Amino acid sequence: MDNLIPEHTPTLLEETFESVYLFEHPLYSLLAEKTELPWLLVIPKQALNERSYIEQLYGEIYQMIDVLQKSGFGPHYNIAKIGNKSPNLHLHVIFREEGDEVWPDAVWCHEPLKTSEEMPERFRQALQKYFG
């Protein structure tokens, strides 16, 4: 598990994770699930074995979360590194609200979730200035 994806091309990432490519960052690539639940995938560009990289990566993730919460996503969020369905290294960032379709349960216990073609675009618009 935790296979590092060496090339972060949008097509490869979308095919691998069956998600919508959003943005490129020096530390990671960002994708969005096509669900009504606001769900992002962070694909690191390095293995998570160097403390300085991990600190930078999570620092950037928390800054992005702050931007998204100020744009109306949230108020709660979960960050998880699990690899039950995909051996490729990735982190989940999921925004939760009381009363969402699976509240208060864990998201992964209730798939499939309601789909949304609009959610990736909402993320793209909210993060446009952040990724500039």
Explained architecture:
By secondary structure, the chain is an alpha+beta fold. It has a single domain, classed as HIT-like (HIT family, subunit A), CATH 3.30.428. It contains 3 helices and 5 strands. The chain has helices at 10-17, 51-70, 118-131, and strands at residues 20-24, 28-32, 39-44, 76-80, 91-96. The chain has a 5-stranded antiparallel β-sheet, with helices on both faces. It is globular. The protein starts with 9 loop residues before the first helix and ends with a helix.
Could you give a quick summary of the protein structure above?
The chain is α+β, with helices and mostly antiparallel strands.
Present the secondary structure layout.
Elements: H1 10-17, E1 20-24, E2 28-32, E3 39-44, H2 51-70, E4 76-80, E5 91-96, H3 118-131
Antiparallel strand pairs: 1-2, 2-3, 3-5, 4-5
